[in-house]
């Protein structure tokens, strides 16, 4: 009997440590390059994927994700697997908070002591409605792809939100987000006929192969 199931295996990968991560700076859409540690993490993530034949790689259009994605692509199909830029998976826009440390943010925006960073509602930050629309469009795009293995290189905040969206839909912002996503943490989601199953989150085993190269995680 022929199995007619359509299955997309999606590996969500957070980018390697950036200079902003290293120094405790809020990024959002702001551009920061990978640190030296981040570049090593990207290489190790690429090594991990060698045993997995990827059909496609999509990346946030922010350079810290793009560098990580290109490191992965370089180890696939003799270095010929093209990285597709995908703005749908860029980090949540944080407007006036971008470029600040947490301490600076607390001084200038005292209300942030009790508000979640990604859903504060501060003027100039990305709205819940806009983030939800991105999640909807991303799901449509992923489930329309042919069956296969797909890597999506994104950001800790967006990945944690997208996982909540897969679980409870457009009400994702009303619930606690329990996911912690470290630099180059790998999360596996399988869509079968459009229905998602989360197999694991934040796998960082690849960062243990040359000593412990994990870096601090940011709780969003």
Description:
The structure is a single chain. Helix content is 30%, strand content 17%. The radius of gyration is 17 Å and the shape is globular. It has 220 residues and is α/β, with parallel strands linked by helices. The mean pLDDT is 94. The protein has one domain (7-93, 127-208): Rossmann fold (3-Layer(aba) Sandwich), CATH 3.40.50.1240. It has a six-stranded mixed β-sheet with strand order 3-2-4-1-5-6. InterPro entries: His_Pase_superF_clade-1, His_PPase_superfam, Phosphoglycerate_Mutase. The chain crosses the membrane at residues 150-168. GO terms for molecular function: fructose-2,6-bisphosphate 2-phosphatase activity. Keywords: Hydrolase, Membrane, Transmembrane, Transmembrane helix.
List the helices and strands and how they pair.
Layout lengths: L6 E8 L4 H5 L12 H14 L6 E4 L3 H12 L8 E3 L16 H7 L19 H16 L4 E7 L1 H13 L17 E7 L2 E9 L17
Parallel strand pairs: 1-4, 2-3, 2-4
Antiparallel strand pairs: 1-5, 5-6
Helix pairs in contact: 2-3
Question: Summed up, what is this model?
Answer:
With 220 residues, the protein is an alpha/beta fold. 30% of the residues lie in helices and 17% in strands.
């Amino acid at each position: 009997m022929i199995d007619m199931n359509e299955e997309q295996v999606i590996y969500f990968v957070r980018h390697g440590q950036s200079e902003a991560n290293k120094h405790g700076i809020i990024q959002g859409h702001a551009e920061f390059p990978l640190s030296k540690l981040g570049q090593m993490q990207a290489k190790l993530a690429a090594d991990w994927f060698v045993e997995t034949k990827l059909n496609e790689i999509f990346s946030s259009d922010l350079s810290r994700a793009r560098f990580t994605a290109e490191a992965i692509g370089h180890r696939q199909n003799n270095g010929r697997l093209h990285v597709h830029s995908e703005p749908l998976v860029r980090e949540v826009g944080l407007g006036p908070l971008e470029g600040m440390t947490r301490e600076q943010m607390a001084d200038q925006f005292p209300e942030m002591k009790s508000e979640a960073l990604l859903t504060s509602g501060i003027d100039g930050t990305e709205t819940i409605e806009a983030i939800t629309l991105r999640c909807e469009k991303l799901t449509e795009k992923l489930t329309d792809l042919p069956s296969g293995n797909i890597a999506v290189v994104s950001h800790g905040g967006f990945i944690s939100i997208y996982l909540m969206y897969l679980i409870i839909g457009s009400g994702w912002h009303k619930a606690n987000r329990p996911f912690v996503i470290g630099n180059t943490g790998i999360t596996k989601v399988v869509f079968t006929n459009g229905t998602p199953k989360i197999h694991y989150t934040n796998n960082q085993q690849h960062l243990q192969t040359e000593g412990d190269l994990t870096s601090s995680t940011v709780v969003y």
